[in-house]
Amino acid sequence: MSEDRTHVQEFFGARAADWDRKFPGDGPAFTTAVTEFGLRPGDRVLDAGCGTGRAMTALRAAVGPGGTVLGVDLTPQMLAAARRAGRDAEGALLLADVARLPLRDEVLDAVFAAGLIAHLPDPGANLRELARVVRPGGGLALFHPIGRAALAARHGRELTPQDMRAEHNLGPLLSGSGWDMASYADDDDRFLVLAVRRP
């Protein structure tokens, strides 16, 4: 686990300063995904693995001034970039590991996770940890601004049946972690899976 944490911190820490400039066109995809997530005014939402906080403006707009937005990331440089971009005005930013969240049980209404699942060292246990902090009936959104095939092409690799984000793999993984998959979309221009926290 410590080696995985260190690798993630090194990988994203080295890229944090240029992250937003590298993906300048992703904003509308984040906004659309948050809209489809169906958050309500007053909701308490966690942006898990928030990076530079690209979802936080849309999350704040969805939950309104009476809601709570918390961004959590493992990489200090990513959080620093989020603050430089002014995204800490949309919610609190916290340096923490989503595998061990410093939050009470069932304190949240929803978790939004952009690009997170591929970087979880123990996806089943880590998804259970996200379920722990969400109330029964609350939501989970697993998002990426491009689909699996486009992402694989970007990284010069082929999709395989073993891909964790494939529907036939992700459904049982979510189910075994306290979530019921509600919808699955894997298009060229976005990947969005919505799930509901099981009672």
From TrEMBL:
Coiled coil (UniProt feature): none
CDD domains: AdoMet_MTases (cd02440)
Superkingdom: Bacteria
InterPro entries named among the record's database cross-references: Methyltransf_11 (IPR013216), Methyltransf_Superfamily (IPR050508), SAM-dependent_MTases_sf (IPR029063)
A single GO molecular function term of this UniProt record: methyltransferase activity
Record carries keyword Methyltransferase: yes
Entry annotated with the keyword Nucleotide-binding: no
One GO BP annotation of this record: methylation
Alphabetic keyword roster: Methyltransferase, Transferase
Domain Methyltransferase type per the UniProt entry, residue ranges: 46-141
Pfam families for the chain: Methyltransf_11
Protein known as: Methyltransferase domain-containing protein
